[in-house]
Design a protein that fits this description.
CATH topology of the domain at 3-40 and 203-271 and 387-456: FAD/NAD(P)-binding domain
GO molecular function: oxidoreductase activity
Distance between the termini: 23 Å
Structural class: alpha/beta
Helix content: 25-40%
Radius of gyration: 22 Å
Oligomer: single chain
Number of helices: 18
Pfam families: Amino_oxidase
CATH superfamily of the domain at 3-40 and 203-271 and 387-456: FAD/NAD(P)-binding domain
Domain Amine oxidase: 10-431
Protein name: Oxygen-dependent protoporphyrinogen oxidase
CATH class of the domain at 3-40 and 203-271 and 387-456: Alpha Beta
InterPro entries: Amino_oxidase (IPR002937), FAD/NAD-bd_sf (IPR036188), Zeta_carotene_desat/Oxidored (IPR050464)
Strand content: 15-25%
């Protein structure tokens, strides 16, 4: 075949979609029984359960919305959530996290910290041009961790804003992950009140893409070897040859699969560490709300307040279609410090640990908790450390070879937007290498900046 794509997450499917439209023969190999990767969704008796990613933003997701338009998804299929984020402090929920109203309300910050929030916002506004979505290694704060940066401000900004956001949405340890990536994400995604979800589950774009592609699920690839003019894949007892192979899997998995990567690739793969993720879904006999009247769809539980959970997602508030009428659905997200001890534990132990922490925040939970499912992600999200940022420029300047990569870790942007951008960029790199084989395609393509491709050649 022309191209073999390993991994049917959003990055792999985006790349395969672009290459197929260009006239190449493409097959996608996926070890799991379903597509979506870390944007997969599960269905059970009328509940739609997002096992990984939870939402997207109308701003800062340029490539994603281009893809949504191409797939023909309507506004009704990608609705606005319209509910706030809240943070728990001193026995109550404080709404307005990551919204403009936090400048007035403080969203759980002390009075002194509230002033420092205004100072941070003013600093971020002045320096917004010093952050680059596509080249985070060139951004301000690339050598600092989130915790380093937070020390400029009152400790509350770390404890009740930076840490709970980083810990819940990315599973990050703020002492390890780069401030450049987090601040840029806060700047680019806009107010939490504008965020959206996919009505029929976060796997909607993956399912739409896969329906038009040759995708082999339940077919893991065990090794990829680059050769002159192409590459070989070992899948089960079969050997598959392709002119190009795209490894669209987390960096640690790509490092395990690629038998002979060049040095500039191997060092970046090694630097792209991932944080694990662990979630428990709770199917409820009745919907619950966080006391206080604001009805947030996410309750952040900071590490200074809670050792087991990092957040509770009220999925029936995110979108009513996530649960049958009159029912509820929660997602319990484990605290990053708890995950290593629990990741390999039996489901019953994980469920017991996480659900036992819920009644403190949602009174009446035990009476309506009906059924639970555990979702493990050994490689949850790229950690985006300063070391990875330091090595990214050399990786992005590598020549195009028979084996290439796509994933949010390539962009060091831990979000589905990073996956879509990386998939489109990887497709462009493959097309530049196989150009004599490609027939012209005149319809609109996903946006890739010219300088991105030039720097990757």
């Amino acid at each position: 075949m022309d191209v073999a794509v390993v991994g049917a997450g959003l990055a792999g499917l985006t790349a395969a979609h672009e290459l197929r439209r260009a006239g190449l023969s493409v097959r996608v190999f996926e070890a799991a029984p379903q597509v979506g990767g870390r944007m997969a969704s599960a269905r059970h008796g009328g509940w739609t359960i997002d096992t990984g990613a939870e939402q997207i933003s109308p701003s800062g997701y340029r490539a994603t919305w281009e893809l949504i338009t191409r797939l023909g998804l309507t506004e009704d299929e990608v609705p606005r959530i319209g509910r706030p984020l809240a943070v728990w402090r001193d026995g109550q929920a404080h709404a307005g996290v990551a919204e403009a109203r936090a400048l007035l309300s403080g969203a759980g910050l002390s009075c002194r910290a509230h002033l420092d929030l205004i100072r941070f916002q003013a600093w971020a506004f002045r320096h917004r041009g010093d952050f680059d979505d596509d080249r985070p290694e060139r951004s301000l704060l690339a050598a600092e961790t989130v915790a380093d940066f937070a020390r400029r401000y009152h400790p509350d900004l770390h404890d009740y804003l930076f840490q709970p956001v980083a810990g819940s949405f990315f599973g990050w340890n703020t002492e390890r992950s780069a401030a450049a990536v987090m601040v840029n994400l806060l700047l680019s995604v806009g107010s939490a009140g504008t965020w959206c979800t996919y009505r029929d589950g976060m796997d909607t774009p993956a399912r739409r893409l896969a329906a038009e592609l040759d995708v082999a699920t339940g077919q893991p690839v065990h090794q990829v070897i680059a050769e002159d003019g192409g590459a070989r894949l070992q899948t089960g007892e079969d050997v598959v040859t392709a002119r190009s192979v795209l490894l669209c899997v987390p960096a640690p998995v790509a490092a395990e699969l690629h038998a002979n990567p060049p040095a500039e690739e191997a060092e970046f793969l090694a630097a792209c560490t991932f944080t694990p993720a662990l979630k428990v879904s709770c199917l409820l006999d009745a919907p619950l709300s966080v006391p206080g009247g604001d009805r947030p769809y996410v309750l952040l539980t900071p590490a200074v307040e809670e050792q087991v959970l990092s957040a509770i997602v009220l999925d029936h508030e995110k979108h009513p279609g996530r649960a049958p009428a009159g029912k509820g659905l929660l997602t319990l997200m484990a605290n990053a410090a708890t995950i290593p001890d629990l990741l390999s534990a039996p489901d019953a132990e994980i469920i017991d640990r996480l659900t036992s922490a819920v009644p403190r925040y949602l009174p009446g939970f035990d009476a309506v908790n009906r059924l639970n499912f555990v979702h493990r992600h050994r490689f949850g999200l790229p950690e985006a450390t300063p070391a990875a940022l330091h090595r990214r420029a050399r990786f992005m300047a590598r020549p195009v070879g028979p084996v290439d990569y796509a994933g949010d870790w390539v962009m060091l942007r831990p979000a589905s937007e990073g996956a879509v951008r990386a998939g489109a960029l990887a497709a462009s790199r493959v097309l530049s290498r196989l150009r004599p084989l490609v027939r012209p395609v005149f319809s609109k393509r996903l946006p890739i900046r010219t300088e991105d491709l030039e720097n990757s050649r």
